[in-house]
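step 3/5: co-fold with flavin mononucleotide
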Amino acid sequence: MNNILFIKSSINGEQGKSTALAQELVSNLAATSEVKVVERDLAKQALVHLTQEEMAAWMTPANERNNEQVELANISDSLVEELKTSDTLVIAMPMYNFGVPSTFKAWVDRVARAGITFRYTENGPVGLLKNKKVVIIAARGGMYSGTTEDSQTQYLTSFFNFLGLDDIIFIYAEGLNMPGSDERFSAAQAEIKNFSL
Ligand SMILES: Cc1cc2nc3c(=O)[nH]c(=O)nc-3n(C[C@H](O)[C@H](O)[C@H](O)COP(=O)(O)O)c2cc1C
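step 4/5: write tokens
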């Protein structure tokens, strides 16, 4: 059984190109192997920006948390648990203003937890997550992959490496707001069709 965590963050919901392509990938995987899929739609859930109060709630030992802290700590705890129990992350990733959607960044801020998903050592931080594959379907209006302007790929790679995950695959659907977008979308679909875990 492969536990898939399917993370979406397009503001266009199911109409989002990243969502549609990633859904095709998840459906293909489900058709050919035994999978359990957990969906996390960050555009729908729209986590608020991380606050000092929320971080303080994580730092407070569980048996000393007040009611508000129990609720606040639960936001991160449940997202971390979902991440830890997954074998494969399928991430539908739109590019918004050269980066990741702010809702995705809010998720990043909840799952990077010192002592839980990474720890500090004398030699620097060490990721505590292991043996997960990360598949990122990156949808963009323009063309950036392979250029110095693609800071999104660099950011996502650094972040997952930081957590201990280095098996990361990017599938790009680029130039979606440019002439020839249909062909490029189809090319991404073909890549997805041939993809296997
Ligand atoms: C708010 C916003 C910002 C965007 N910024 C960029 C950008 O910086 N670079 C780019 O190539 N495309 C940009 N686009 C286009 C999207 O990347 C493109 O529409 C892509 O399909 C988004 O994924 P989605 O369809 O799953 O939402 C932007 C779109 C929106 C709505």
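step 5/5: annotate
Residues 67-84 form the longest helix (18 residues).
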